[in-house]
Amino acid sequence: MKESITNQVGRITSGNVNALLDAVENAAPDLVMEEAIREVEGGGNRRGAC
């Protein structure tokens, strides 16, 4: 099955972004946990949240 260059680039970009996020989360697991706790406790309504 042939794949378009756009799909290939998109897949590679997505993989790189996911790898970057994994690296950041592995470097600071305590910060990731604190953010998860804030979200569960309803802190997701703070300014700047999506």
Describe what you observe in this structure.
The protein has 2 helices and no strands. With 50 residues, the protein is an all-alpha fold.
List the helices and strands and how they pair.
Elements: H1 5-27, H2 29-40
What can be said about this structure in brief?
The chain has 50 residues and is mainly alpha-helical. It has helices spanning 5-27, 29-40.
Span between termini: 38 Å
Assign a percent range to the helix content: over 70%
Query: Radius of gyration, rounded?
Result: 16 Å
- Report the uncertain regions: none
Structural class: mainly alpha
Strand % is under 5%
| Total of helices | 2
Q: Give the biggest sheet.
A: none
Number of DSSP E strands: 0
Order of helices and strands: HH
If you average the pLDDT, what whole number results?
A: 87
Q: What would the principal axes of the Cα set say about the shape? A: elongated
Features:
50 residues; mainly alpha; 2 helices; elongated
